[in-house]
């Protein structure tokens, strides 16, 4: 249950995004005809076959466990993968379930009044191995509980709806975590591995046991129109974590969480270095975020496979610890480079810019002290922030400076109780133009209104060229 202050933050967020949500509702088309209705929504591909979870014995009373019904439905519908694909509709109701696996050429569609309730019986959560690029559990040394909605080696998967809800009922897991009673790492709400052509859209995710959406070792991903809500004190409830993925588009998402709203990752220490799969070609636009103890967007800390070509636009963050944060350290290896941030509106935070090479938090004792990360080509422009304690804290690594930092057209309003010195910089190199308050000398001032500084690349990414289709389905209930 959220405490009072959490709900105040949620109200602030919903007030900001209400007009956007209204616009999204206006794009939905619904035609009611007796006991039938037709749904039109955006999807990568339309499906030829449809069924309801009720057709497989599902009961939406919030008490009956539906894990077997979900798996039976998906197994049956998988036979249509080569015949136009299939869709499983979750009607209005409360559908209690343990973890289930998706299939290729498949759509999971939640009615606007549908709620998927994650089972709180831990035996409903199978345990799987740690990710190879992590080599170690995050909450405990061994394996991890599989995610509520899971899939691996899939093609063309859609998880969408009319803003239906997935409720992780995470309080039990948070208590177990804080009490150090977990034998394995907590589950996520949605995880898709080694998959291609993924869409997750138009849903509300609440109270995840840990991370909410985790695409990993995957490509061609669109995550759009998602609302994520968790108490701001809940542990590790990251919003969206693209991890060793390529060609990703995150847009129009609204997140209140107890950790980073978006956390970009690519593996942990020697395991991520060995696996060697970076996250690259990532677009993040029109994100609205509240997270008082974490960042709107974090790059790392698990970035040992590398992060490159990240394009961020139109970010609104209220009461977050920082705007964009780069987290790394000795032993991480990897790189974060070619990052472009344009258009941030920020209100009430400790740091607007935060880079640290002292993050630590190693997978185990086998990390290599000679594995130094490369942080290079980090560009920010058109940033407005208010009520800020400190403009920036930029901490590179001795003998391994963060280079190519660029800031242009940045205006930061400091809070009444702000730090005496608004900037702290060590082991960094870069340039600046029209930045207030003036940054540290390590970001050499290029004079006012320097044309073209810190600009976005002009070429588009392939993920931006995927056009959503309008699909209609009819079901009798």
Automatic annotation (TrEMBL):
Superkingdom to which the source organism belongs: Eukaryota
Organism for this UniProt entry: Datura stramonium (Jimsonweed)
Listed name of the protein: Polygalacturonase
SMART domains associated with the record: PbH1
Residues making up the signal peptide according to the UniProt record: 1-23
Keywords in alphabetical order: Glycosidase, Hydrolase, Signal
Similarity field: Belongs to the glycosyl hydrolase 28 family.
């Amino acid at each position: 249950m959220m405490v009072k202050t959490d709900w105040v933050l949620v109200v602030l967020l919903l007030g900001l995004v209400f007009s956007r949500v209204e616009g999204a509702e206006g794009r939905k088309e619904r035609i009611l005809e007796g006991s039938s209705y037709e749904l039109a929504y955006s999807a990568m591909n339309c499906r030829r076959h449809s069924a309801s979870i009720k057709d497989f014995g599902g009961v939406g009373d919030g008490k009956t466990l539906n894990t077997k019904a979900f798996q039976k439905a998906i197994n049956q519908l998988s036979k249509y993968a080569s015949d136009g694909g299939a869709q499983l509709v979750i009607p209005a109701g409360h559908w209690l379930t343990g973890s289930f696996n998706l299939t290729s050429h498949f759509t999971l569609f939640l009615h606007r009044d549908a709620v998927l309730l994650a089972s709180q019986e831990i035996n409903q959560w199978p345990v799987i191995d740690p990710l190879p690029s992590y080599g170690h559990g995050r909450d405990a040394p061994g394996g991890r509980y599989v995610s509520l909605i899971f899939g691996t080696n899939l093609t063309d998967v859609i998880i969408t709806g009319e803003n239906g809800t997935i409720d992780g009922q995470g309080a039990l897991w948070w208590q177990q975590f804080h009490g150090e009673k977990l034998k394995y790492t907590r589950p996520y709400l949605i995880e898709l591995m080694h998959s291609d052509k993924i869409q997750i859209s138009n849903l509300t995710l609440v109270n995840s046991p840990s991370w909410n959406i985790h695409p990993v070792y995957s490509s061609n991903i669109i995550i759009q129109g998602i609302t994520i809500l968790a108490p701001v004190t809940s542990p590790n409830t990251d919003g969206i974590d693209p991890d060793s993925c390529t060609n990703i588009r995150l847009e129009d998402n609204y997140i209140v969480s107890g950790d980073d709203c978006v956390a970009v990752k690519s593996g942990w220490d020697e395991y991520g270095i060995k696996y060697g799969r970076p996250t690259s070609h990532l677009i993040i636009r029109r994100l609205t975020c509240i997270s008082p103890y974490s960042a709107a967007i974090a790059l790392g800390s698990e970035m040992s496979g590398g992060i490159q070509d990240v394009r961020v636009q139109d970010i609104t963050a209220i009461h977050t610890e920082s705007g964009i944060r780069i987290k790394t350290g000795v032993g991480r290896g990897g790189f974060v480079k070619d990052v472009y941030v344009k258009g941030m509106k920020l209100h009430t935070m400790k740091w607007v810019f935060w880079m640290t090479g002292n993050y630590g938090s190693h997978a185990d004792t086998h990390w290599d002290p000679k594995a130094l990360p490369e942080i290079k080509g980090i560009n920010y422009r058109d940033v407005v922030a208010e009520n800020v304690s400190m403009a920036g804290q930029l901490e590179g690594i001795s003998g391994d400076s963060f280079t190519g930092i660029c800031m242009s057209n940045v205006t930061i309003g400091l809070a009444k109780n702000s730090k005496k010195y608004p900037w702290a910089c060590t082991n960094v190199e870069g340039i600046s133009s029209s930045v207030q308050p003036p940054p540290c000398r390590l970001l050499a001032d290029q004079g006012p209104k320097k044309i073209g500084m810190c600009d976005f690349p002009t070429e588009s990414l392939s993920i931006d060229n995927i056009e959503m289709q309008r699909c209609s389905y009819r079901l009798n209930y």
